[in-house]
Structure formats: C-alpha cells, structure tokens
Amino acid sequence: MASDPVYEATCTAPVNIAVVKYWGKRDTTLILPTNSSLSVTLSQDHLRSLTSARCITTTSNNSNANAVADRLWLNGHEEEIQQGGRTHRCLAELRQMRKDLESRDSSLPKLTDFALHIASENNFPTAAGLASSASGLSALIATISTLYALLPENGVSVSDLSRVARQGSGSACRSMFGGYVAWDMGTRDDGHDSVAVEVAPASHWPDLHALILVVSDKKKGTPSTAGMQRTVATSDLLKHRIDHVVPARMDRISTAIRNRDFDQFAIETMADSNQFHAVCLDTQPPIFYLNDVSRAVIQLVAELNRASVDAGKGYLAAYTYDAGPNAVLYVRERDVKLVLELVLRYFPQQTFDDPFHLGPEPAAASSFVQGFNAAVIPEHEVGAVARIIHTKVGDGPRVLSSDESLLNGEGMPK
Length: 414
Ligand code: DP6
Known about the structure:
Layout: E1 8-14, E2 16-20, E3 25-27, E4 32-33, E5 37-41, E6 48-56, E7 71-74, E8 77-79, H1 86-104, E9 115-122, H2 132-147, H3 158-166, E10 180-183, E11 196-200, E12 208-214, H4 224-234, H5 236-258, H6 262-281, H7 292-310, E13 318-320, E14 327-332, H8 336-346, E15 387-392, E16 398-400
Parallel strand pairs: 7-9
Antiparallel strand pairs: 1-6, 1-16, 2-5, 3-4, 5-10, 6-9, 7-8, 10-11, 12-14, 12-15, 13-14
This protein binds ligand DP6.
Ligand DP6 binds next to helix 4.
Protein name: Diphosphomevalonate decarboxylase
Domain Diphosphomevalonate decarboxylase-like N-terminal: 13-196
Family: Belongs to the diphosphomevalonate decarboxylase family.
C-alpha cells in the first residue's frame, strides 16, 4: 500500500534590530502602529528561529476544519494556542489564504482540513531583549506559507505575508525580508496597507556589522506590548515623536541606506534610540530599560565618535537599544577591529570567539583614535557585559531541507 504523502516544511527566520523604533499601537488587535519603523535584518548564521510545521493527516479529527487541533512546541515545551490569541489569528489567516488557493485550483491537496503540528526553536535566549518574538513569529509565517504554497507565483507577496506576521508581533513583519526593511504604518483601519517593504537588500550594503553587547540575558522587566500602550496613554513626548520626528527621520535614514552614508545612518540611529528611551521615561509611571552598563556603552561610543569626527574621520559606530539593557552597535566592516578592541578593553570577556576572525590583536596597545579620552568611562569587570555576539546584516527567511526538521515521522518533536 502506498504511504500517505507527507506535507511538511522547515524554515529559519532572522532577528531584526530597529534603527527607527516601533513603539505604540493605534489598534492593539490588528497590531497597527502609531508610527512607521525601520530595521536591519541580522544574519541567520548567528541568530535565528527554526520552525517545522506538518499537516497531521492521520488523526480522526481531520474531517472538519473547524475541529482541527493544532499543537505548538516552543523550545521543546508544548504551549497552548489560545483561541483568538495572536498565534491563533495568524494560523486562521494563513488557512484562509490556503483555502482561497484551493478553491481556485481544485487539483491542490486540501491541506486546510488537517491539523498542524508546529515545533520552533531559537538559538539564543528567549525574551532576552534580542527580538525573539520577531524571528519566532516570522519563522512560523515563513514555514506555514511554504507548506501552504503561499508564494509569489500563487499571487502572495512577501509583503502580504508580512501583514500576517504583523498580527503575531508587530516587529515580526520586518523579519520577513532581509537587508534594510521599513514597516509602513499605513492609514487604513483594516491594516491592509500596514506592511513591511524592502528598502534595500543586504547585498546593497553588505559591510554593515552588528556587535550585540549582552548586558543581561535575563527576562526583561516591562514587556514591550504592555509598556508601549502605557506610553501611548500617558506620554506627550510620544505625540511629538509621531507627528514631528519619525516621518522625516524615515526619509533621511532610507536615503542614508540607499547612499551607504554611514555618518547619517549613525546620527539617525542613535538619535532615535535616545528618543525611544526618552518617551519611556516620559511614560507614567516611567519605564527604564537602560542600566548603568548600557549608559557606559553610550558614553564610550559617543566619545569614540567625537574623537573620530574631530579628527576628520567621521562616525565609527552607532548604538541602539530595544526594550532592554543590551546594546547593539552597528559598525562598518573596516572599523570592526578597532571598535571591538575598544569594547573588549572597557568590557573584558573571559573568552570571545569572533566568527569573522576580525577580532583585535591580543594586547595591541592601540590608542584607538587621536584625541580619544581614555578616561571617559572606567574599565569594567569581566561579566559587566555577559557576552558579545558579532554578526552582520543578512538575508530573509530560508527554506531548509527535511533533514533539518524538528519533527519526527509521527509529526511529534524529535
Ligand atoms: C522596542 O514587536 O515586541 O523592539 O507588537 O506588541 O509584539 P508587539 O511588540 P514588539 O515591540 C518591539 C519594540 C522594539 C522596537 C522595534 O523593534 O521596532
């Protein structure tokens, strides 16, 4: 007897780190933002979510699509898919898109009749302020859209998929693309025009590296979902940001990316991070994400840039912080050695293996940059920065082979 066909897909999706921050929703169910945002997608060679999804063709409850019992395992633990919750809504939307496809082409297998088993893993700590929800949700959408053949040749664009990812977690919509990605806030009440679009692919400006200084990998204090609505409700500064700052900044930073203009990119990135944390402080009661180590990193980068600009060499690094104390430094490839040397001098590591082998020469007594004030911050103890992840701009979600599946032959986690 012929065995049943296996309908399964496995994909990875990247982390993205915003340089113009999303903070605030005008619709909390559809996840429609109060301002547009822009991010850099980071390489999946270092940070990624991996997801497998399979149609369960053998159980008895498959006859009625309304009765299918989807199951989800995150990092090995089964999670409930809450009725009407974010994941449930994403799955319902993808099923509807597949149903439309099946009704247009009757030769397609009726995959929407089957329950889904989904297993997902991150290769970095969840909720460490490293945008795990963005890569996790976009891996889910990428995997099920692959399984359901929701592809450009079937009339479904990546921006269409980003609209679904957005409803799982706002920032996830930007992880559907590689490179430099804008999330247009849109104006419609139904969210149809609130989608991610590519500003430039990674290949346009491939030498942008990221140094992630993990100050703490503990779960963060105020979750972003709750924090941002408190800001919407109480901050006057947020209104100013939405109306008078972000629209022009989106234009300027998009132009900087198109022109590979690092100075302008760095100026906008740091100003936007500062303003995001200022609106957090302007919230009632105030929200603090930065700690003393975060602020020391800011001072260090600011002094390095000051000395470099004064010496006529332009900006060397741009810091940005999300809803947590970890710093992300964007640096051009040619400056990575210098910036790493500086970071490791002030925030020493027990061990640091550089995947790019661009790390500093041991004990190189460099003076960094002419005029740099070495006393700007004290040299910290080992452990102040728990670890450093060196990565760079990267591509969008990847489809993997079945060998990489997280599910076994029965569709259960391996
Ligand atoms: C500070 O996308 O995690 O990282 O839409 O409620 O899931 P939800 O929020 P989320 O917020 C991210 C906020 C941020 C800024 C950004 O990534 O743009």
